[in-house]
Structure formats: structure tokens, C-alpha cells
Design goal:
The protein is α/β, with parallel strands linked by helices and about 270 residues long. The protein has ten helices and twelve strands. Strand 2, helix 2 and strand 3 form a beta-alpha-beta unit.
Length: about 270
Amino acid sequence: MRRGRVHLVGAGPGDPGLLTIRGRRVLGRAEVVVYDRLVDPRVLALAPRRALRVFAGKAPGHPTLPQEEITALLIAHAERGRRVVRLKGGDPFVFGRGGEEAEALAARGVRFQVVPGVSAAVAVPASAGIPLTYRRLASSFAVVTGHAADDAAEPDWARLATATDTLVVLMGLARLPRIVAALLAHGRARSTPAAVIEQGTTPAQRTIVGTLGTIVTRVERAAVAPPAVIVIGAVVALRDHLAGRDQERRRRARRRQAATSIAVSTVATAT
């Protein structure tokens, strides 16, 4: 019997155009696709029509499949000789449990390959006009999760508050008040620029800008919903010089979306 293989593929931060060429090629040969909640449907449509699609997404506080069952599913299909794609938002090794899945596959002797993806940690701030590093302003950045798992330690906010120039928080919207309070308590200034970017890299992208002293109130008033990326640091202020490009960026995004939809339709028809 043919030996199966699992590809852990990063689908990127939201915009289907940010899926890598390699990721698209692997997805186009898949027999089974196990995909997450934030994977754009147009990316999923690149898989062959006959491929089995299994939803393994997790909404905040409401996991659809326990991680152990997801891993067991990957192993079971691979051991039956199938080409399996584990399609994950962003990059599979950045807060996506890709490392845990790879470890389990290796322990079982299942062949696997990692296909890196564009991480939301970098792409979403960039799409909002916020560079994470900038000469004279920021020579370092850290990426942390704002949603610690039950068996994982809370991020060390005492160290993070002043240890890095730019701080990027993923999956932290629900805990924004708590995160801000911790950073302020450990020495980060209330005047520090901060931004929350909703639906980053998509035509629905929205950016709320303030400071650590105001960002919680502004986000609440704007009724921001996940997915959202939080950026804290002096580089957020640079967006003032780049804000004029937002409208054109969104127009381009809409054009890309329309073009991608046509391309996906063509691929789906061909398969």
C-alpha cells in the first residue's frame, strides 16, 4: 500500500493572495484536508473537488474537535496511504499547535512536511501601515499569545512590558483590558501608541488606534470582533504617515479578491 504523508500548511493571515506557491501546489494534490476556522473558503477551494474536507476549527471557548482527535485524524488518514493537508491559518508553527502535531506524527513514524505560511504577526501590522521595526524607533519586537492554554503559563508581562520595543499580541482581544493593565503596572507608559487591527489583510480590515491609556475604550466603542491583532509600541505612530494609502490598499484588496474568486472558480471547474 502507498505510504501516506501529512503536510502542515500555513494558509496565511487571511488574504488568499498570501498563500505561498508551494502551499497551493501541495493543496492541489490533497486527498484529505483538515482545516481551521480562519482559513479563507477561496483557499480551501483550491483543493481537488473530490478531496475529503474536515473542519477542525476552534471558536474562542468552543473547540470543535479536541486537539488529540485532530492529531489522531491526521495519523489515521496518513496510515491509510492518503495525502493529507493540515491547513492552518498563518504559519503552522506560530501559535497553531503545529509543533505538537509534528511531534505526534514523528512519534508514530508518519511522514510529514512543514510548508511555512505568512504569519499574521507580521503581515497584519504591515497591511495596516505599521512596520514592526524602524530605525531610531524600534530594533526589536516580540510576538506573544494573549490566549494562554489551560496548561500553559501566562505570558510574563512583567518582562515583556519593557523588554522589547514593539509588542505584537495574537488572540488577545478578549483579554485586552487585562493585558493593558499588566503592561501599565510593569512600567509601560500610558502614552505608548497602540493599535488593534480587525480582519487584517482582508477587504474588511479595520484599524483602531490609540494609546495604552485609551485603546481599551476605543476598541469597546468600535465593537471590534476577532480575529484581531494587537500592536503596542512607538512604531504604531508611523501609521499617521501611511494612513492615506489605506483606501487604495483596500481597493486593491477588493480587486485581488475578485480576481482570486475567478481563479478559484476556474480551478474548481477544472478539477
